[in-house]
């Protein structure tokens, strides 16, 4: 038997994956200088890593293997060494959450910190997950909303005047007034109306909780993620019970002050109690009051507003992303209002999508052909209004709910209804007040038309009542046993090709085992994790791999005959993922994973090594990548004390830095980026996303779904397809959607003007002309950046190579 081999049931001997990486420590791959190093410094590296990705791999592998919960035998020790090598070389990048939090203490942590993807059916659960950094999807179907916020109690808020964050002096009152929207952003400390801010405090807060009449419910908000969510659970459960005649007093005095370090977030600064209080003020003012007087009568719309106000505070806290997906059944009477929620309602914190099915697309076509049937006319009205809004601001999108794996197989409807709150229960968080609400919602979900929705980026199918998916990236290019830049594209000797392919397959198999161990962690949705054992592993840097390994550009990949070796390899790795999932589940005594394959956006992981992200084409040839950091300057031009120290560091080295107005308290740093794919010598065979037609990109997605996602046990592909409005008008956009969107599980189709015409304060990626790019790079005092962005690469890519 091979080293580490295991004799499985039926006498089959299974070798331990990872042999192609060996067990002797391999040197770590260098991160892409500039952007890659910046991302690692912000979200991956700890002081003890000393900016070495090999040390990151050491702790991540150790932490993940510790989840077995027993002393490691020789086989597990070998697997840990192989896993470490796969991560250190970049072949198995896992995900940003694992790279950030993975260490020897992982078994003592909660799973929420390690899950990228989740859903929630109640606001308190959604808030808790956002606070843990998860992206959260929620379905706002009429059938899936049970709380009428008109039934909420009167909410009274208290913060001790002794708390460090209670605004006392003029400077603190000015900052409070600006951040609570009482004063304009350009107001000065010298000139603002102090009495107006003090009057607001007197109206909105109570100084003495003991002064509240007898019978009020008093709740002290604890200084933890769990404590913050528990306050929302208390309020939401009272609203469900119809307690409008009660008073709820929330005391925020125990929450640590602004700027204090958060231990579980590598010491990043806390946002303090005022941020959470601002959310409760907004819910009181924008949801409860209008719900009571009839201005906000629909519970689904109330729920969207509650979630929005909570998400705003998570996002401006700066340490977590607050990514959300909001979906709604196309059949609901309020669907047209949902469609306009972003353009007219200002609800900018979620990606909004209409959940549709075959009946919807048939109805649109039938109504276009003259059908007078009511459902067909409704489908057409939804389609036309959604596309009208999307053509202006990109949303909502369409998700084919009946094509999602758990809907298609019927497994979503197998989830039992529990009445004791076990659906939301972990060692850290236990439902106390909302068990009845959750049971009601679970019963509703069992009968709902769409029992599944997706995570914010659309690549994972999850039950509407709540579920997780742990996800990971592998990078087939970085599994190359030599420097990929030294490979003659598509020209390899048999031994090198075989070793490269073996490393890719080992990355996939090791990644599947890595994710299954993560599914054993203490989790809020432990019941659902046990039921589904769901995971999602997917490739990133696909276009670099296609070129270096097979000598194929994007246009070649659309020719299935010419690119057959690429697609055959991808399908083989997909089957290997599902085979390993079944075998390892049997070994651990768990259920076969409901889903295994996916393609996630891979933003953080791909940037570490300069790769194209997930299934996406390169967006641009050379550009500035703008990254948000928490912090702004004071009137003297110095950074505030609680600003991220990296802002001053990057500014001192000459990187472009801007303060933001649309994201209060945030600034952005621009990182000159020359993608790795520009450095591999594709020349005129390189195709960027703006250069590829929508039809070609849909074909690419269909091929990826067929060969990687597979017919069974696959999630979806997260993909944003831009349709440029200077080339396609509204009717052309509608024709593109109607022809192609019904053929894929989901795809975010984003009408977009050229960058210069968009009018946004900033774009995450800003393409710049070659001469401007060179000038920006020249002004930056960072030797590592200059080494990585040797501008001879740029000259070669544009046909004027000096060599």
TrEMBL record:
Transmembrane segments: none
Residue span(s) of domain B12-dependent ribonucleotide reductase insertion: 193-284
InterPro entries in the cross-refs: RdRp_reductase_class-2, RNR-II_ins_dom
Keywords: Cobalamin, Cobalt, Oxidoreductase
Cofactor: adenosylcob(III)alamin
Entry's Gene Ontology molecular function annotations: cobalamin binding; ribonucleoside-diphosphate reductase activity, thioredoxin disulfide as acceptor
Protein name: Recombinase
Organism of provenance: Neoroseomonas eburnea
């Amino acid at each position: 038997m091979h080293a580490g081999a295991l004799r499985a049931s039926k006498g089959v001997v299974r070798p331990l994956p990872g042999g192609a990486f060996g067990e002797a420590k391999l040197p770590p791959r260098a991160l892409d200088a500039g952007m890659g190093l910046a991302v690692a410094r912000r979200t991956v590296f700890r002081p003890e890593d000393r900016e070495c990705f090999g040390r990151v791999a050491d702790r991540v592998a150790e932490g993940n293997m510790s989840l077995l919960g027993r002393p490691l035998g020789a086989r597990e020790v070998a697997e840990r060494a192989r896993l470490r090598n796969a991560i250190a070389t970049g072949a198995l990048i896992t995900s940003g959450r694992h790279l950030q939090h993975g260490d020897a203490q992982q078994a003592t942590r909660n799973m929420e910190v390690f899950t990228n993807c989740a859903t929630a059916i109640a606001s308190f659960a959604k808030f808790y997950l956002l606070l843990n950094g998860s992206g959260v999807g929620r379905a706002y179907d009429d059938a899936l909303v049970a709380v009428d916020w008109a039934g909420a109690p009167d909410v009274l808020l208290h913060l001790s005047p002794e708390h460090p964050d209670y605004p006392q002096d003029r400077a603190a009152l000015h900052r409070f007034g600006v951040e609570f929207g009482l004063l304009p952003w350009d107001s000065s400390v010298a000139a603002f109306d102090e009495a107006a801010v003090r009057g607001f405090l007197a109206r909105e807060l109570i100084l003495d909780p003991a002064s509240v009449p007898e019978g009020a419910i008093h709740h002290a908000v604890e200084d933890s993620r769990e404590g913050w969510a528990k306050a929302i659970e208390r309020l939401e459960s009272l609203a469900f019970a119809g307690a409008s005649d009660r008073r709820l007093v929330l005391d925020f005095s125990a929450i640590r002050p602004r700027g204090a370090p958060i231990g579980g977030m590598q010491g990043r600064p806390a946002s303090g109690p005022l941020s959470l209080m601002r959310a409760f003020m907004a819910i009181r003012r924008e949801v409860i009051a209008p719900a009571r007087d009839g201005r906000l009568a629909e519970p689904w719309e109330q729920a969207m507003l509650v979630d929005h106000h909570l998400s705003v505070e998570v996002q401006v806290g700066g340490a977590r992303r607050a990514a959300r997906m909001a979906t709604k059944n196309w059949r609901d009477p309020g669907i047209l209002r949902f469609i306009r929620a972003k353009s007219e309602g200002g609800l900018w914190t979620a990606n909004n999508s209409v959940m549709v099915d075959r009946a919807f697309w048939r109805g649109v076509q039938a109504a276009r052909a003259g059908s007078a049937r009511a459902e067909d006319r409704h489908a057409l009205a939804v389609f036309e209004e959604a596309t009208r809004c999307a053509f202006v601001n990109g949303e909502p999108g369409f998700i084919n709910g009946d094509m999602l794996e758990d809907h298609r197989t019927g497994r979503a409807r197998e989830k039992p209804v529990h009445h004791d709150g076990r659906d939301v229960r972990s060692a850290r968080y236990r439902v106390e007040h909302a068990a009845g609400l959750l049971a009601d919602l679970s019963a509703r979900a069992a009968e709902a038309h769409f029992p599944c929705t997706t995570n914010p980026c659309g690549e994972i199918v999850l039950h509407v009542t709540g579920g997780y998916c742990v996800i990971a990236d592998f990078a087939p290019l970085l599994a190359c046993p030599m420097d990929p830049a030294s490979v003659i594209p598509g020209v390899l000797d048999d031994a090198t090709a075989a070793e490269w392919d073996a490393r890719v397959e080992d990355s996939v198999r090791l990644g599947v085992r890595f994710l299954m161990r993560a599914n054993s962690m203490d989790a809020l949705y432990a019941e659902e994790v046990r039921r589904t054992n769901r995971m999602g592993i997917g490739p990133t840097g696909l276009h670099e791999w296609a070129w270096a390994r097979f000598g194929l550009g994007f246009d070649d990949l659309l020719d299935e005959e010419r690119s057959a070796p690429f697609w055959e390899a991808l399908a083989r790795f997909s089957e290997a993922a599902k085979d390993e999932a079944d075998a390892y589940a049997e070994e651990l005594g768990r259920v076969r994973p409901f889903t295994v394959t996916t393609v996630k956006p891979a933003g953080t992981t791909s940037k570490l090594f300069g790769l194209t992200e997930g299934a996406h084409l390169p967006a641009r040839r050379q550009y500035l990548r703008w990254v948000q950091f928490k912090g702004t300057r004071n009137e003297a031009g110095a950074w505030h004390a609680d600003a991220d120290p990296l802002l001053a560091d990057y500014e001192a080295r000459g990187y472009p830095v801007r303060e933001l107005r649309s994201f209060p308290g945030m600034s952005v740093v621009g990182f000159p980026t020359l993608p790795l794919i520009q450095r591999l010598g594709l020349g005129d065979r390189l195709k960027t996303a703006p250069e590829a037609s929508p039809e070609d990109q849909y074909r690419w997605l269909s091929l990826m779904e067929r060969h990687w996602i597979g017919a069974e046990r696959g999630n979806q592909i997260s993909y944003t397809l831009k349709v440029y409005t200077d080339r396609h008008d509204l009717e052309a956009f509608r024709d593109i959607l109607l022809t192609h969107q019904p053929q894929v599980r989901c795809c975010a189709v984003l009408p977009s003007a050229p960058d210069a015409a968009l009018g946004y304060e900033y774009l995450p990626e800003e393409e710049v002309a070659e001469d401007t790019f060179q000038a920006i790079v020249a002004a930056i005092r960072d030797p590592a950046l200059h080494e990585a962005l040797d501008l001879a690469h740029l000259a070669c890519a544009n046909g004027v190579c000096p060599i």
